[in-house]
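Supplementary Note 3. Input sequence used for the single-chain structure prediction.
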Amino acid sequence: MDISAYFKPLDQFKFASESEDSKSSRMYGIIEKYVEEDKFPDWTEANIAIIGVPEQRGAVNNKGCGKAPDFVRAKLYELRQAKYPYKIVDLGNLINGHSLNDTYSALAGIMAELLKSNVIPLIIGGSQDLTFAQYNAYQQLEQTVNITCVDAFFDLGTTEEKIHSHSYVGKIILQEPNFLFNFSNLGYQTYFVGHNQVDLMEKLYFDAYRLGQVRKDMEEVEPIIRNADIVSFDITSVRFSDAPGNGKASPNGFYGEEACQIARYAGISDKLSSIGFYEINPDLDKHGQTVHLVAQMIWYFIEGFYNRKKDLPLVNKSAFTKYRVAIKNSEHEIVFFKSKKSERWWMEVPYPSNKAKYERHHLVPCSYKDYETAVNQELPERWWQALQKLS
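The predicted structure, written as discrete structure tokens, is reproduced below.
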């Protein structure tokens, strides 16, 4: 598949305000960009490939978000480099399809090609229904995946609705054949979702974490993100004062520095293989504040990526300390693994032999608090929910 046919080159003059000397010390200087028609970047040896998707036909009350990719790039390219062996390409902007489904299909096919070469697609949307295309890329590879959405809403929609930015999660859940193992939401706000949707998430054994619950202990976010193959970040989850450039911006949400912390957690996760930033609307932005924040989030994601520890227990269990915790009055014994390199924790969840396709999900990222819970003779909630899905 020649993916270059799906992209439009960038207008380099949009990013030409800095002197050449200054550019060399900024992100502009280390990202290989698609700016000339006949010189498409060689992405096959890259670590990360930036994809702009100026698609907004699936947006709900946020028209203008399709303009975001170049505005975010302009701020990203201004940021200073760190001392890492950067291998990043910017493939330019995807040419929107004749229909919205055509855009989904093109993006999914391009992502599948990148994933086969172990290149991380970093998508700058566009509306968040593009997460549906993110998921479809893994479906093409027949890989079961975990999705984490950082969002004030669940975006479940109804079965009767067409796919859009408030219904795409429901479409992913109902799609057949289905390769979704787990879905997690970070930062939902109950007055936006209602108790019926919260109850539905519990019945599906999905993970949903209220904004206040997450902000109370941000370190507990790390294992949730570490369990994801796909992260989809809706800028609606950030409060209006920090990110006004969104049609659904709310007084409550994450602070900007918390959003950057979540993005860094995504970067350092060895499991995560694609990420998207969505719903940024330059038409509603104030002094470029929102696009600047997203650029910094991307910077932190990249910084996290180049600090990955490569300590997945499935790869080398000798690099871990193993703990066994027997739960009294229960048939269960929980096995924990603690990395000697990063001091991160995992716990082992048994799965039936006839469900071998779920093997990669039976080691669940957790925290020291989960170990303490087990030592206190209680089953950790993360362990229990994973067991229900594997059983």
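The chain has a mean pLDDT of 93. Residues 100-116 form the longest helix (17 residues).
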